[in-house]
């Protein structure tokens, strides 16, 4: 792979929308040197799999693409009787350029094993093609962001609760609220306890 890239970054330009058997809608890859690099990489992997006796499949050609939708995953559409995606639905995007994508990692995935929690295919191994971009957050940063989002959501919920409480009655019934850590009991509760103790002695 390093020899194929020759130290160059791999940038994939995506353009145009198409479909596979009117069941899978995808964005295609434009032609160019990047396509030759991908084709060479696919052929290299195919040869290695054959050498190890791991090659399986129906011999279909390599067609790099970016999947947009699968009808097999669109249960709501299938329940409405939609079984095919006609080209007329995406005709205005057949020549649209969607942008470039820098390839930073190549994953060897299994489509037979259980998917990961995030819905991505089970990954057997990964090959990092370059360093992590500065703009890409690491796991620690993602954890901090997630924690902050949860805290913000809780604070907003508390503020909303306070506002609704004030609007509905001017606050909670202070006579029924006992300060934390207070051991003082109300006269009513003391009298009840005393009466109960007297009854028990009798």
From TrEMBL:
Keywords noted in UniProt: Kinase, Transferase
Compositionally skewed regions (Low complexity) per UniProt: 183-193
SUPFAM superfamilies given in the database record: LigT-like
Positions of the A-kinase anchor protein 7-like phosphoesterase domain: 8-129
Transmembrane segments: none
Chain positions covered by the region annotation Disordered: 163-202
Domain A-kinase anchor protein 7 RI-RII subunit-binding as annotated: residue spans: 136-168
Quaternary structure, from the entry: Binds cAMP-dependent protein kinase (PKA). Interacts with PRKCA; only the cytoplasmic form is capable of interacting with PRKCA.
Name used for this protein in its record: A kinase (PRKA) anchor protein 7
Organism: Nothobranchius korthausae
Gene for this chain: AKAP7
